[in-house]
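QA checklist item 7 of 12: single-chain prediction sanity check.
[x] sequence parsed
[x] length recorded as 429
[x] structure emitted
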Amino acid sequence: MKVHLITFGCKANQYDTEKFRQELQARGATIVDEPDTADACIVNTCTVTTSADASARKAIRRVKRDHPDMQVLVAGCSAALYPEMYRQMDAVDTIVGGHDAVEVANGIAPDAPLMEHHEEPIGAQLLTRNERGTRAWMKIQDGCDRRCSFCATRLARGASRSREPDDIVAEAKNLATHHREIVFTGIHIGHYGRDLSSRTTKSEHTLARLVERLIHEVSDVRFRLGSIEATEIDDHLLRLLETSGGRLVPHLHVPMQSGSDNVLRDMRRWHTREQYRQRMHEVVARLPYIGLGADVIVGFPGETDEDFAETRELIEELPFTYLHVFPYAVREGTPAAELPDPVHSTVAAARSKELRELAMQKGLAYRRSRAGQAAEIIVEGTGRGLTEDYLRVELDGVSDDDVGRILFAPLAVGDGDNLVASIESGVCR
């Protein structure tokens, strides 16, 4: 059987798709890049916004329209939250409400035997490699115990569940044989280990302890944190960012959502504007440079012009290098859906545009500040790479043989204010 995979959403979803791929390959399936040659298609859905749901439905209809005989299986967060919606779609053959790789594979190839040559058994818990890209996603936990009023992902993913540290270390060793960078992902990685610690009295499990163990036990790979809350960047984790010699790269994505305490309260966030502000300044002061990103929601119910001005002022003050800005979208079943005083879509769109333009200016200023400085650039393809502080770089002189290696080279600003680097002025290993 030939299977085509379509993934929407976050790095956790991308990791889950890799588990789907591995499980299907263990049963003899071939994963194909184009749907034209496929017998079946798996759509791994996202429900973080209404547009994510809509994009998944559009892709499903397109695949079935172009390939009427293809088996279409829908999985992921949107399928978990809105199974009835997908049942009513003629284009959907099978629904898996979640991300279980065995259940997904059973939905496509239930009777397929394990291939003798395959390294991992059916239902294997450890990922051996990421087929897509030079960097590997590694999910360390799933679900979330917080109750942000706007979030549907928690409803789809459930409570926070941490993976056992020994399993994570073993998986990291697998991935390190194929990848030079491993990205920690999950739904709320800052809560890693809390559920494990409650089940044992031997030791406390924290994200920082896990990272430190991986740095010591898994060599020849650099690690990158996924999204993490400001209040969960503890001193131990910050010390690792400072002292690991680049093994834990200087890049943090720290959701802010709003710079107004009024809005943060209605969002049921657990940090104040000042708590976020202080921690970001503390982080930046400890490191010579850092890629710093954030999520921001504009147009949340009740957000006034004054609230938005506070958000903009905080963004102007903090040294962000990029932002993910989203106009608020009502998510059925969340507390925010019941809030009064909705913000008109045109106002939310204008605020979103304003912050995105500000983010572009701040990103440009940071790129220019890095010109002339050395960087560790993972070669993602011929002519392109990614620095440790999450900057895209145009590369000169690299070949297909260099993909996946790390280039140590000074950065320069090229045409269009893009960063450039050359293998002639650096070392690739």
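[x] summary fact logged: The longest helix spans residues 345-370.
[ ] second reviewer sign-off
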